[in-house]
Specification:
The chain folds into 2 domains: about 45 residues, no CATH class; about 100 residues, Formyl transferase, N-terminal domain (Rossmann fold). A 4-stranded mixed beta sheet has the order 1-2-3-4. The chain contains 5 helices and 4 strands. The relative contact order is 0.12.
């Protein structure tokens, strides 16, 4: 499931022959309604676990309660530091030497659910913009080993 039509995840899934659905968040303005539709679609497809990798949307209690303890987020910081959007930018601005990635259960409180796994990654010299081709996000954060989720 992707919420941004044509995004890299959708293209990758299609290239690999993995079924992918699109629910464009711009077409449903009310977040509770959007999350209700996600729950409906997930249940129709008998989805047992939802991993939010690059979702970049704050979810409501509708999705959290619909998938209680089965909704996992991959967040690009060592929580509880740098919650919310632009965690990498927050870390850069704070001048930390090490940041990383956290896999956690999603709760109604933003980026505050039980932590399942973390990996620390040092910032490299000269790393100033998260979006740069050699930036931190593309190579290091959110590359948590898949076995953490097994």
């Amino acid at each position: 499931m992707v919420n941004n039509p044509g995004c890299g995840a959708q293209q990758r899934a299609e290239r690999l022959g993995i079924p992918v659905s699109v629910l464009d968040h711009r077409l449903i303005k009310d977040r509770r309604e959007l999350d209700g539709e996600l729950v409906r679609l997930f249940r129709a497809d008998q989805v047992e676990l939802v991993v939010m990798a690059g979702w970049m949307r704050i979810v409501t209690e509708v999705l959290v309660s619909g998938y209680s303890d089965r909704l996992i987020n991959i967040h690009p910081s060592l929580l509880p530091s740098f919650r919310g959007l632009d965690a990498i930018g927050q870390a850069l601005q704070a001048g930390v030497k090490v940041t990383g990635c956290t896999v956690h259960i999603v709760t109604e409180e933003l980026d505050a659910g039980p932590i399942l796994a973390q990996a620390a990654v040092p910032f490299s010299m000269g790393m100033t913009t998260p979006g740069s081709p050699n930036g931190f996000r593309s190579r290091n954060t959110c590359s948590c080993p898949g076995h953490w989720l097994s």
